[in-house]
Amino acid sequence: MSSSELILGLDPGLSITGYGVIRVGESKPEVVEAGILKMRRDRSLPERLKELHEGIVDVLGSFPVGAVAIEQLYSHYERPRTAILMGHARGVLCLAAAIAGIPVYSYEATKVKRMLTGNGRAPKSQMQQAIRLQLDLAEPPDPPDVADALAIALCHHFSKQTHTQLLD
């Protein structure tokens, strides 16, 4: 890893996609920017995907991101439609990163939660507090989609850091 790198974490959604850009390097990770991409619920699926694409292209064009970390798709047997719809959003985000030439890394939500809280089933409020502490923020990130995106970016950083240390 270079002395300083930007990682973009993404929490995909068709209504709200959380994003968080962190700077990692020699010192403690820090937030560069974080927010949400909000799609209009009254629009058709293709229109919402277009809005999502335009939003993520804008974010990718604003920062020299070296890696994109995204939540892996999770499917619950009682709600397969949700997983299918989320797959659309995730696909748009992955495609935008690939077009920009940025590598994409996927992480299971339970792994992210376990890495940051020690509990793979941590509630959103616990994740928000963990992110506040990890990134020395005055307040927990809100909405929770932002905290989740920052958590995914941190998970990538910590995973990469551990992997690099194992190779040394």
Oligomer: single chain
What is the radius of gyration? 15 Å
Helix content: 40-55%
Q: Tell me the number of helical segments per DSSP (H or I, 4 or more residues long).
A: 5
The assigned structural class equals alpha/beta
Number of strands: 5
Overall pLDDT: 91
User: Under CATH, the topology is which?
Assistant: Nucleotidyltransferase, domain 5
Total domain units: 1
Q: For the record, what CATH class applies? A: Alpha Beta
Uncertain residue ranges: 164-168
Tell me the major beta sheet: 5 strands, mixed
Whole-Å distance between the termini?
13 Å
The CATH architecture is: 2-Layer Sandwich
Question: What letter string, H or E per element, gives the SSE order?
Answer: EEEHEHEHHH
Strand proportion, as a percent range, falls in: 15-25%
In words, what does this structure look like?
- The protein is of the alpha/beta class and 168 residues long.
- The chain is 49% helix and 23% strand.
- The chain contains five helices and five strands; from the N terminus they run E-E-E-H-E-H-E-H-H-H.
- The protein has helices spanning 45-62, 80-99, 109-117, 124-134, 144-167, and strands at 4-11, 16-25, 30-38, 65-71, 104-107.
- Helix 1 (45-62) packs parallel to helix 2, helix 3 (109-117) packs across helix 5 and helix 4 packs across helix 5 (144-167).
- The radius of gyration is 15 Å and the shape is globular.
Write the layout of secondary structure elements.
Elements: E1 4-11, E2 16-25, E3 30-38, H1 45-62, E4 65-71, H2 80-99, E5 104-107, H3 109-117, H4 124-134, H5 144-167
Parallel strand pairs: 1-4, 4-5
Antiparallel strand pairs: 1-2, 2-3
Helix pairs in contact: 1-2, 3-5, 4-5
